[in-house]
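Researcher: Quick test of sequence recovery. Tokens follow.
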């Protein structure tokens, strides 16, 4: 459910490269369009595999206005255990928000609506789609950017522990560090997050996830590797522990 730890982070670092190469005297366009396509060895959302430890194909596009408003969409292949009755094979995120920099701080507020196409048949009381507003603030400290994020999903049926019973809500807080090694195409990332439960997103209880990663950018391509782990347990129908730590890899292109 959402961006993979290395796929999205790597491409965000890569997407800054073309902008830096632009003529500084040229006026900034009112509307910009950015996109990405990535293959990841495992799609992990907040440390939990969404693909049962298998590869995922992902892609997204964002349209931004000079005022700070933006809209976008992002999608990924997933395993069928992600949703209520095990019929999903795709995740589609619909995103809208506002992002602005004041001084050295960048504020970002918005919401993501998670859609799992074809998962609800007529008369089915379950629900898999849900909305999650978010807010973040980031600040550049030399070559390093520090970011804090709060996500709050209000009470919804999709967040019930069995996605059928009483509605639940969910809170996720996270801190991230990212930066590029000067005069190199190498970027480094660190992440620490905590999910408060109980809810479907919290795998029934609260848990913590963390990761360390590195990226290498060559023109529009970005190669990523990271270690992702949690202190939770989520056993999939195949008997795998989707929350178990492991090394992930990715190859992505941004445009």
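Model:
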């Amino acid at each position: 459910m959402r961006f993979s730890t290395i796929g999205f982070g790597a491409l965000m670092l890569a997407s800054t490269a073309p902008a830096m190469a632009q003529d500084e005297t040229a006026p900034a366009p009112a509307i910009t369009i950015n996109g990405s396509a990535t293959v990841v060895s495992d799609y992990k959302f907040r440390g939990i595999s969404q693909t049962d430890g298998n590869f995922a194909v992902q892609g997204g596009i964002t349209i931004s206005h000079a005022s700070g408003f933006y809209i976008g969409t992002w999608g990924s292949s997933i395993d069928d255990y992600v949703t209520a009755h095990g019929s999903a094979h795709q995740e589609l995120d619909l995103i809208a928000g506002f992002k602005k920099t004041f001084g050295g701080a960048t504020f970002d507020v918005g919401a993501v609506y998670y859609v799992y196409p074809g998962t609800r048949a007529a008369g089915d009381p379950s629900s898999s789609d849900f909305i999650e507003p978010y807010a973040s603030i980031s600040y550049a400290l030399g070559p390093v950017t520090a970011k804090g994020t709060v996500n709050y999903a209000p009470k919804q049926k999709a967040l019930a522990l069995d996605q059928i019973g009483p509605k639940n809500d969910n809170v996720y807080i996270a801190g991230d560090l990212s930066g590029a090694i000067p005069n190199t195409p190498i970027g480094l990332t660190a992440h620490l997050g905590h999910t408060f439960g109980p809810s479907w997103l919290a795998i029934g209880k609260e848990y913590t996830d963390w990761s360390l990663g590195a990226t290498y950018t060559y023109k529009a391509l970005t190669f990523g590797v990271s270690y992702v782990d949690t202190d939770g347990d989520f056993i999939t129908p195949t008997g795998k522990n989707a929350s178990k730590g492991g090394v992930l890899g990715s190859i992505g292109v941004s445009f």
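DSSP finds one helix and 14 strands in the chain.
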